[in-house]
Amino acid sequence: MRECYVGVDGGGTRSTGVAVAPDGMVLARCAGASLNEHTIGREAARENLRTLVRNLLKESGAERCLCLTAGLASLSGPAGAEMTEAYREASWGSICLTSDTDIALMGGSLGKPGLAVIAGTGSMCEMIDREAIRHTSGGYGYLIGDPGSGLSLARDALLLSLDREARTGEKNGFLTYAMAEYGVSSIETLLEKVYSGDNAVARLAALGRQVLEGAARGDVEAMAVLRSNMQHLASQACALLDRYGTVPVYLYGGIFRNSPLAVDIFTEMLGLYSDLTVSFPRFSPEIGAVLLGMRALGKDADDAFLDTIEKTDGEA
């Protein structure tokens, strides 16, 4: 019987999963829908996870999942027993649900001290200090705010644009783009659309890419929004570094991946730490999920296992 470990990165907009053989060979990768039950509800999130795992097992040819580990944007740490049981499937072997920052950090630090900074649909910082104690900063969710996230970039740019239109009667480029994306011709209708629909948060967050593109072109307003958000996110990371000591910093999420400018602004804010390293991780979060699940089973990945992942995974 062919068996595999399954790791899932359950973001606020979409999810990605990987199936890895016991020897480290990457057997399959699949993409899926959002797993954030705060925005789509538990039943929808649960069904999306089932679908993703089914697709991974089908693509990999595996008949049994030894361990499913999923990092979810809706969690700030390991899930409780009630939530874990609600998601459990008999064919999955063991199951571990935790935060997306847990798996992201594992993909970079490989269980050693480190600080993961995520900037995707949402944002969060998580550190494992030199005493192996876990600390977090940010990750407060869309109602309170996640600075540096796609949602925060889009929301701040939209508010700035709406205030400008109210003051001058002029629609700037971002407001024009937003209205086109929502298919509306008036601000009143735009506001109705922003607050309606099952995917309202993810849809607004997707406009964050326009802020990144505007900042890259030198747009003054887009640059101001990006700088403010990256500085705020960097201050959350600095709060952990100041309290618990410097450790390597790993950057994750679509904002960092798609904007060298965002990386530069963030890194600039951390420049006061002379011995600090800031980098992208060795492995993707979903691979980090596999490694975290193995550790929960008492199986630490050795160098041969990690090298096999790198050789067989196009995403590594």
Q: What's the short story on this structure?
A:
This protein has 316 residues and is an alpha/beta fold. The protein has helices at residues 37-40, 42-60, 81-87, 100-109, 141-144, 150-168, 173-182, 187-194, 200-205, 208-217, 220-244, 254-258, 260-269, 285-296, 303-312, and strands at residues 3-10, 14-20, 26-33, 64-72, 94-99, 114-119, 123-128, 134-138, 249-252, 278-279.
- Please bin the fraction of helical residues: 40-55%
Low-confidence stretches: none
- How far from one another are the termini? 27 Å
Beta-strand proportion: 15-25%
Written as H for each helix and E for each strand, in order along the chain, the element string is EEEHHEHEHEEEHHHHHHHEHHEHH
User: Using only CA atoms, what is the Rg?
Assistant: 20 Å
* Main sheet specs: 5 strands, mixed
Report on the architecture of this protein:
Strands 3-2-1-4-5 form a five-stranded mixed β-sheet, sandwiched between helices. It folds into two domains: 3-110 and 282-312, Nucleotidyltransferase, domain 5 (2-Layer Sandwich); 138-279, 2-Layer Sandwich (Nucleotidyltransferase, domain 5), CATH 3.30.420.40. The model has no long low-confidence stretch (mean pLDDT 93). The protein has helices spanning 37-40, 42-60, 81-87, 100-109, 141-144, 150-168, 173-182, 187-194, 200-205, 208-217, 220-244, 254-258, 260-269, 285-296, 303-312, and strands at residues 3-10, 14-20, 26-33, 64-72, 94-99, 114-119, 123-128, 134-138, 249-252, 278-279. It contains 15 helices and ten strands. The protein is an alpha/beta fold and 316 residues long. The longest helix has 25 residues, at 220-244.
